[in-house]
Design a protein that fits this description.
Blueprint: H1 15-21, H2 32-38, E1 45-50, E2 56-60, H3 61-77, E3 85-89, H4 94-106, E4 109-112, H5 119-129, E5 133-136, H6 141-151, E6 156-159, E7 168-169, H7 170-173, E8 190-195, E9 205-209, H8 211-223, E10 234-235, H9 243-255, E11 260-263, H10 269-278, E12 283-285, H11 288-297, E13 308-312, H12 317-328, E14 333-338, E15 341-346, E16 361-362, E17 367-371, E18 383-388, E19 397-398, H13 402-407, E20 409-410, E21 413-422, E22 428-433, E23 438-440, E24 443-445, H14 447-455, E25 460-470, E26 474-483, H15 491-502, E27 513-516, H16 530-534
Parallel strand pairs: 1-11, 3-4, 3-5, 5-6, 6-7, 10-11, 10-12, 12-13, 13-14, 26-27
Antiparallel strand pairs: 1-2, 8-9, 9-19, 14-15, 15-16, 17-18, 18-21, 20-21, 21-22, 23-24, 25-26
């Protein structure tokens, strides 16, 4: 029982040997839900659930298989069919995992949505995707109801826990039959839809196939130092609603039959180290902001079982790498990817030297290069980071965005929109973003959605949002606001605008500074010159 590794080179092999021997093996028929739980020994631990009081419950792969079958049957019973989108507005939990697995098995499409989102952000995504149903918690129910009303899709609302009347109860769906026929999905069938950051307008939904899991495996196995090893236990503080939490941690770990830890607790540096020690976590995906918080607070623990840690989203630098070696007892492997094509470059400290500031080398199976303005591969000079296809990790397409999908590619190359350099040894170095995306706490935030929210305030005439440096978070949003005639700027109004965004979008999208300005610098065609705003 179990699934094969993607990387089959023998231990001790060089990077070049691993790269040259690698070959994709993507079967015609493949289902993420089946591959993650049904093929593993039913008595093996699959999910370790730690509640707020510290009580630990171990859920076996057999239980996950049974519950996900019941959930798939339950969804079918309320009218969800193959290809339908099902939103998941639930933080890390057993219910989140069951929902994902059941949706995949049914052949429907999982639509993970962060609990941080406000009603406007949820409504846009639920409406754009035409979600048939949405799973949520009692704590998120009020804004989900508002979002469904705004979206106007009539999505059925499934609520976890107890006490919510007038909605479909999650537990009722789990009373459905535990027998579920073998799914007939092929590798190219849609499996999950994750919305990007909306850097140049509304957020775009990146639709991924079941094969995307296979496409993630080489990077996953590489970043976590020849994963899996005997006794591995996986954990991440990242929300499973993001590509990082879902596909850099939960799903590939389950594919390999290793238990995943989930804890109902707000992130705290010392708590995180204590949790990893208590649960004997061996491999962890820790976003850069979390690592910086650990370092800033002086958090430490002398009884960790960590053998591998991975991070991505921004370069750690020499000092942070040294901190990881001192406190975590290992070299943190950095990696690179994006929602549309994830885990395509990175480091494996046991195989080749990590160069501080570099995001590593192309992961075996992925051809990552730098293209100049004419689309030619260049070495030693700046250009756009691109990935050559076909590649199983690539998204199928942007949801309902054929023009955006077309613009994402240049021939066989997927264009990342990021600027970088490849050195003569094949190491890749991130330089900047082409699209002005804001990278805060590991989240890629598009200014467009924040600007749209600010423009919804009755006293705002124009606005623009940029990212400014922050020692802990990497970047935070800063808004420049032009008020309507007759409106006077004030600290009270600035706080009111912050509150306006906070109640409509996610907490990490709230501008940390609002500057009132008479006019915005623009090009002759009316586009805002963000580079000039950065100089103010």
């Amino acid at each position: 029982m179990g699934n094969p590794r993607a990387i089959t080179a023998s231990p001790g092999a060089s990077y070049e040997t691993i790269r040259d021997r690698f070959a994709w093996n993507v079967p015609e028929h493949f289902n993420i839900g089946v591959a993650c739980v049904d093929v593993h020994p039913p008595g093996a631990p699959g999910l370790i659930v730690v509640d707020r009081s510290g009580v630990v419950r171990t859920v076996t792969f057999g239980e996950l298989a049974s519950m996900s079958n019941r959930f798939a049957n339950g969804l079918a019973g309320i009218g969800v069919t193959r290809g339908d989108r099902v939103g998941i507005v639930v933080p890390q939990s057993l219910e989140t995992g069951i929902a994902h697995l059941g949706i995949y098995k049914l052949g429907a499409v999982a639509l993970p949505l962060a609990s941080l989102f406000g009603p406007d952000a949820l409504a846009y995504r639920l409406g754009d995707s035409e979600a048939r149903a949405v799973v949520t918690t009692p704590g998120n129910l009020e804004k989900v109801v508002e979002a469904v009303e705004i979206a106007g899709t009539g999505a059925q609302i499934v609520v976890t826990g107890a006490g919510a009347t007038g909605f479909v109860a999650f537990d009722d769906l789990l009373r459905s039959s535990a027998e579920f026929g073998t799914p007939t999905t092929v590798s190219e069938d849609p499996a999950f839809l994750i919305y990007t950051s909306g850097t140049t307008g509304p957020a775009k939904g990146a639709l991924h196939a079941h094969r995307a899991l296979i496409g993630h495996l080489p990077g996953f196995e590489m970043y976590y130092e020849s994963y899996p090893q005997a006794g591995d236990v996986h954990w991440t503080p990242a929300d499973w609603a993001w590509i990082g939490g879902l596909m850099d941690s939960l799903i590939p770990a389950w594919y390999h039959g290793t238990p995943v830890v989930t804890a109902d607790h707000d992130f705290d540096p010392q708590w995180a180290l204590d949790l990893m020690a208590d649960q004997r976590v061996t491999c962890a995906f820790i976003p850069p902001t979390a690592l910086k918080m650990m370092r800033a607070t002086g958090a430490a623990h002398d009884d960790l079982s960590l053998r591998a840690a991975f991070t991505g989203g921004e370069a750690l630098g020499e000092e942070m790498l040294a901190w990881g070696e001192d406190v975590l007892g290992l070299t943190v492997n950095e990696g690179y990817g994006q929602t549309e094509a994830n885990l395509v470059a990175g480091n494996q400290a046991s195989v080749f030297p990590v160069r501080p500031g570099s995001m590593g080398r192309a992961v075996p199976g992925h051809d990552v290069r730098i293209l100049d303005d004419d689309g030619h591969v260049v070495v030693g000079e700046q250009g756009e980071i691109a990935v050559r296809g076909p590649d199983p990790v690539f998204m199928l397409r942007y949801w309902n965005r054929p023009d955006a999908t077309k613009d994402k590619y240049l021939g066989e190359w997927l264009l990342t929109g990021d600027v970088g350099i490849e050195d003569e040894d094949g190491y890749l170095w991130f330089v900047s973003r082409k699209d002005d995306v804001i990278n805060s706490r590991g989240y890629r935030i598009g200014p467009g959605e924040i600007e749209e929210s600010l423009m919804g305030h009755p006293e705002v005439a124009m606005c623009a949002v940029i990212g400014v440096p922050d020692e802990i978070k990497g970047q935070v949003p800063k808004a420049f606001v032009v008020l309507k005639d007759g409106i006077e700027p004030s600290d009270a109004l600035a706080h009111e605008l912050e509150h306006h965004v906070r109640t409509r979008l996610a907490a990490h999208e709230v501008p940390r500074e609002i500057v009132f300005i008479d006019d915005l610098p623009k090009t002759t065609t009316g586009k805002v010159l963000r580079r000039e705003l950065r100089e103010l």
